[in-house]
Design a protein that fits this description.
Aspartate Aminotransferase, domain 1; alpha/beta; single chain; seven-stranded mixed beta sheet; binds ligand PGU
Length: about 400
Amino acid sequence: MINRNPNIANLKAGYLFPEIAKRRREYAASHPDAKIISLGVGNTTEPVLPHINAGLIEGARRLGTAEGYSGYQDEGLPELREKISSVFYNGKFEIDEIFISDGAKCDIGRLQILFGSGTKIAAQDPSYPVYVDGSVLAGAAQGWEGTGYAGITYLPCTADNNFFPDTDLIPNDSLIYFCSPNNPTGAVADRGQLAALVETAVKKDCIIIFDAAYSEFIRDSSLPKTIYEIDRADQCAIEVNSFSKPAGFTGVRLGWSIVPKALKFAGGESVNADWNRIAGTIFNGASNIAQAGGLAALDDEGLKEIRELTDFYLGNAKLIRDSLKKLKIQCIGGDNSPYIWAYFPGRDSWEVFAEILEKCQVVTTPGAGFGPAGQGYIRFSAFGHRADVEEACRRLIVLMQKNPFRQ
Ligand code: PGU
């Protein structure tokens, strides 16, 4: 018999979002009349807008024609890569520094192969669970100790440090996971903060994996949308991004990663060349239909639709934030991000999650699921139909005012 992969055995708990879905199912089974509303997982709910949808349809139509048919296209359509470079990076990157993927999560998982199991990991705490869980799967952790994994450096991001980590905690030669706008806190790193992060990475010979999946939700034009707005970031950072949230492609599956040619390993070898080798070996490219939709999303009409869709979700976020403020619950996020991070001092976040589900039949995400520093917090997602979000807010205000949160 083959032994179980010890890295899987090292994982402390199941993946966060299926666990929440399970608790929702259990609640629904014991309360069959409950009209449950989800402000839990960040999954898009609104239809793909017409121009982008026409791009997807046209992509499918072309596949049925002799002139338009295409097969494998490993690194992605050259036109799409050019468009990504010009729309998001001012033309800074050549197309062979841009790798089209089937989504940011998939690339975050695969990028681990670049570094191997011996690499030190530093991750924002709280953070998108894929960074830490993916690192554990890749063999970077030595098991669970107390509230976190041994071998992974947690970088607390709390109200005390304005949700930006103490860069002194980052070990030399480590792989740093950083997400801005942040999931789950909704905080966005400003230019000075990102410059400090880049400076630390350069000084300590680290590589940053910068997750910009929510960059299109940034409305404050002084905030950087990509780490490459910072000097020397191309020497120390890989950026992953996605069409999932801005274009409603969570089910279509399309993203990209930037692996600059200036990025080198300790021995001077090219990270870009190795990523090209890995991606060519274990990935056969994103769907050509999805890429046709991606191209439509990046022309003038498509960019207007991205703005419209992200404005819609930001409108939901404002409703949620205003409701929490009425209840005098401290919260951040929701202005340049689709997540609102609400603080319940001294409370266990799974208990607050259960209380909101019981009293309001609203599903949220407990902060502790994103890391030890998330304890006491709840994440509200702004992805939902407007009527559902309005109803969830109404329930929160009416029911929680009548029957306030337990202390
Ligand atoms: N990066 C971040 C920071 C995310 O929050 C998510 C989705 C992704 C990447 C995934 O991007 P794709 O391009 O669609 O792969 N986070 C959601 C969904 C949960 C999940 O497991 O991905 C969330 O609720 O946190």
